[in-house]
Amino acid sequence: MVVKREIVNAIRFYRTKYPVIALTGPRQSGKTTLLRELFPEYQYISLESPDLRAFLEDDPKGFFEKYSQYCIFDEAQRAPQLFSYLQTIVDDSKIMGQFILSGSQNFHLMKNITQSLAGRVAIFKLLPFDFTELKSENLLSQDYVAAMLKGFYPAIFDRNIPSKNFYGNYIQTYVERDITELVNIREMRTFRIFLSLCASRAGQLLNLNSLAKECGITQPTAKSWLSALENSYILFLLQPLHDNFDKRVIKSPKLYFYDTGLLCHLLKIKDANQIIGKSYKGNLFENMIVAEYVKQNYHQNLMDEFWFWRDSAGHEVDLIRQDDELLNVIEIKSTTTISQDLFKGMIYFSALAKENVKSKTLVYAGLDNQKRTIANVVSWYDLK
């Protein structure tokens, strides 16, 4: 079953506005499938192939005589010399949508784009499926614990691969291989411990010093590994809102994983009994919802920014979506029942931010939606 990706319309539109389109995202998020289905008339060149990389390096003239226009270059970051040639070609031809690039290592891809193709490329991110995409094919379970455990990578749905098998292979085949290409890792065992420790901190404030100490590595090494995981789209850091409203605020970011299936695998969570009633259920649910907002933002090609806010007294808002200059305040609760106490964080923050607040939303684990005076109560399942 082919699930239509939300980002398709934006890519189609901007292909007529820019000579180069770039699609980035984690391994196995569906980039190649999407591009080959969307543009079947384009030549497809995978630069994972050593032979094709050698062809480009040894005989660039011959390479571009064969692949001169309407080409998809997959894993383009593996051939850094490609980008300067593309710059010359698109500047001469003035053809829109002439080349499409894809890549799964954001740091190298963006570095090459910035150096050679700035102003010539429209950049998109494709992450694992979001709720809207899965619901379009009736593939999203209404059981939020089951959804968290299963995860959202396309192969799990398209090829019906059991999650435990998919994520075990994914970590060994892609995550560990890609990370070693970005940073120097002497002992893979230590990195695996680091990755598991990151998972245990999902939904929490990042304390880099504590993380490094527990793993037995230096703080610069921990920072380097964390950056590599960010650039491989395994995890991301949510920064605190810079406005303090005359309050002492927390300045450390919070750590989240893009996919809760991968997160649960790293935490060795295999079934619902390991989640229900456990203290970390709230962090897992919060991770899923924050990641969902981020995924939908990218897939709908929006430019909103996301923050959280917490002061030194413990007042907190889980997520703030900045729409232009206005703030959409979002609380995330893993309960299925609504009580007045759940709104206290957003009430406190809204009193400080005043006219800067555009909307208030409580996302919870139940299935009913409520339009209350104080805020909209939205089921996780209907998040959009």
TrEMBL record:
Q: Quick check: keyword Transcription in the entry?
A: no
Tell me the Gene3D superfamilies matching this sequence. Answer: P-loop containing nucleotide triphosphate hydrolases
| Record SUPFAM superfamilies | P-loop containing nucleoside triphosphate hydrolases
Give all residue intervals belonging to the AAA domain: 18-134
**InterPro entries, per this entry?**
AAA_14, DUF4143, P-loop_NTPase
**TM spans, by residue?**
none
User: What are the UniProt keywords, alphabetically?
Assistant: ATP-binding, Nucleotide-binding
One GO MF term on file is:
ATP binding
Segments forming domain DUF4143: 176-334
PANTHER family according to UniProt: CONSERVED PROTEIN (PTHR43566), DUF4143 DOMAIN-CONTAINING PROTEIN (PTHR43566:SF2)
Its protein name is ATP-binding protein
